[in-house]
Design brief:
two-stranded antiparallel sheet; five-stranded antiparallel sheet; alpha+beta; single chain; 30% helix; 5 helices
Amino acid sequence: MFAADDEGGRAIPLGVRTDTTRFEARAVLLPRSILLLYTDGLVERRRRSLDEGIGQAADLVGEGRDVALADLAGRLMTGLAPAAGFEDDVALLLYRRPGPLDLEYSADLDHLAPARRALRGWLEQCALGPEQAQDILVAAGEALANAIEHGHRDSPGGLVRLRATASVDRVEVTVADTGTWKPPRPSSGSLRGRGLALMRALLEEVSVDPGPTGTTVRLRTRIVHDEPAHP
């Protein structure tokens, strides 16, 4: 699940001996990979190798690498639970690199450039190809501009939220406003009003969900990569 320089950080459990020197080791968490931290109660069973339990946990993480982390945590608890239930306390922590990008700001065009910069930096952490990253950035920029310029045309000062998440094979960007939906009406000979068509030309899935409290635009696309990403 990650690449480690060595295993020099291994030691006996905390609290067993207070006079034991603790060593450190460094590991590199690869883009779009998942880190699982857990207590031994999750994988340790009587009359079963500890390696077997660890391997089972790793397999479940690999199988669920595309699902939300909250759902993956549930799968781990269900898939690793003994028939009679856990005999020990269990705690686990899941982290996917990079973590979600979550921004909220007032509907002002001055915030468009900072939002795009933040999204560009986040996409770089995902280790996407430059062409695909640019497609996502352009599509998201259109959604942000529409939310500010059209969604809040009658209610300046409302809020716009940008959220981006990545799994091993997919990126999703959500742009939500608190304004009102304005159907696109492209005018003849003009490029205005064609933002939605541009988004759909650049990405695999684009959905628009207008409602009484605002509009949510969801942009999804499968990641194109030459080498398989690490689960």
